[in-house]
Design goal:
CATH class of the largest domain: Alpha Beta
Shape: extended
Number of strands: 19
Number of helices: 9
Largest sheet: 7 strands, mixed
CATH superfamily of the largest domain: Chloramphenicol acetyltransferase-like domain
Strand content: 15-25%
Distance between the termini: 63 Å
Length: 404
């Protein structure tokens, strides 16, 4: 017999522990080399664990267990032969059934109670509470109301009783716990403040309506709002570099590049894959990269490296219908832009009231290194670019900017 010990590989730098989220095989199954046998949660992503060899597997950890990197989680008997599964099972010999007559013995009839009746102790408690036993769903035999039922009963005060009152307790995944920890850390360790503005997206809508079909046909990716917002953000970060910085001890680190984290809602919780050097990407490049990263995040294939190192974050609560919110900074970054839903509202344009597609935008920032001038100026720069994208984002040549 040849036994292979499978140990937890390191998912990335600084990660020392993972959690077995789901076993994709059962104890005693035959597995093939490179077959996914488990999903493991780190504090940054969910990853698949592939079998290192073919053979019969023996599990050494339960779902929900926290296991250290390098710990043995299963054994694979590599000397075991693969079950054929192709040979038809031998037909079992037919056994002639013999009928055996069994005489029914008389059974003593137990005392039963009508549903809604109460024990003497329960009846006394219910009388004191002025509650009728007929309104209580008894848990005793044949629906009998027990003393415990009476003690737990609450006068209705006009509210119906007897409805479902179940609840479920479930351990949070390691990723969900890490997200919670980071959100609390951001609230407790930064001087977070949020400033707001609103954007008229009429011009963006015109450009999308005019070029979206040609863009899709040429690049096989949709021309969405995220490319306009990402381009507007990278432009604003160049104008206000303090927003594209972070604190390290007593130092402020500024970046001359824009790695934009895009918040994505995945099956395991919130994930923030990073679009590297977004300031150098075209509209097509931004849309293609966001689509690639979002697909990998939702399929559970995103890696730790793809979610670390961002310098600024964009989150879009508008896809869920949010009108306004105060997004929480993604540490150690110092700023995050919140997008919201687009609502047609009456607004004043050049002295005339018109109906326009409007969006509230929010910038949450760390006031320790970003002052009001920079934060408000940054948000105004984003607004200006989105309200005049032809000039400020496309250099008055939309076909060239969209590579059409």
């Amino acid at each position: 017999m040849s036994i292979l010990e499978m140990k937890v590989p390191s998912p990335g730098e600084s990660i020392t522990e993972v959690e077995i989220a789901t076993w994709l095989v059962k104890d005693g199954d035959y597995v093939e080399k490179d077959q996914a046998i488990a999903e493991v949660d780190s504090d940054k992503a969910t990853l698949e664990l592939p079998a290192e060899a073919s053979g019969i597997i023996t599990l050494k950890a339960e779902e929900g267990d926290a296991v250290a990197v390098g710990q043995v989680v299963c054994l694979i008997d590599t000397s075991a032969a693969k079950p054929s599964g192709s040979a038809p099972a031998a037909e079992a010999p037919k056994v002639e059934e013999k009928k055996v007559e069994v005489k029914a013995e008389p059974v003593a009839t137990a005392t039963t109670y009508a549903s809604g009746s109460a024990s003497p102790a329960a009846k006394k408690i219910l009388d004191e509470k002025n509650i009728s036993a007929s309104t209580i769903q008894g848990t005793g035999k044949d629906g009998r109301v027990t003393k415990e039922d009476a003690l737990n009963a609450v006068p209705s005060m006009g509210t119906p009783t007897g409805g479902p009152r179940g609840m479920e307790r479930k351990k949070m995944s390691m990723l969900r716990r890490k997200v919670a920890e980071r959100l609390v850390e951001a609230k407790n360790t930064t001087a977070m403040l949020t400033t707001f503005n609103e954007v008229n997206l009429t011009e963006v809508n015109k450009l999308r309506s005019e070029f979206k079909d040609a863009f899709k046909a040429k690049h096989n990716v949709s021309l969405g709002f995220m490319s306009f917002f990402t381009k507007a953000v990278t432009r604003a970060l160049e104008l206000f570099p303090d927003v594209n910085s972070m604190i390290d001890g007593q130092d402020q680190i500024k970046f001359d590049f824009a790695d934009i984290s895009i918040a994505v809602s995945g099956p395991k919780g919130l994930m923030v894959p990073v679009v590297r050097n977004a300031e150098l990407l075209s509209f097509r490049g931004v849309e293609a990269e966001i689509k690639r990263l979002a697909t990998r995040a939702r399929d559970g294939q995103i890696t730790v490296d793809e979610m670390t190192g961002g310098t600024f974050t964009i989150t879009n609560g508008g896809v869920f219908g949010s009108m306004l919110s105060t997004p929480i900074i993604n540490p150690p970054q110092s700023g995050i832009l919140g997008m919201h839903n687009i609502i047609e509202r009456p607004v004043a344009v050049n002295g005339q009231v018109v109906i326009a597609p409007m969006m509230y935008i929010a910038l949450s920032y760390d006031h320790r290194i970003i002052d009001g001038r920079e934060s408000v100026g940054f948000l105004v720069a984003v607004k200006e670019a989105l309200e005049n994208p032809m000039e400020l984002l496309m250099n008055n040549d939309p076909k060239k900017a969209l590579e059409l």
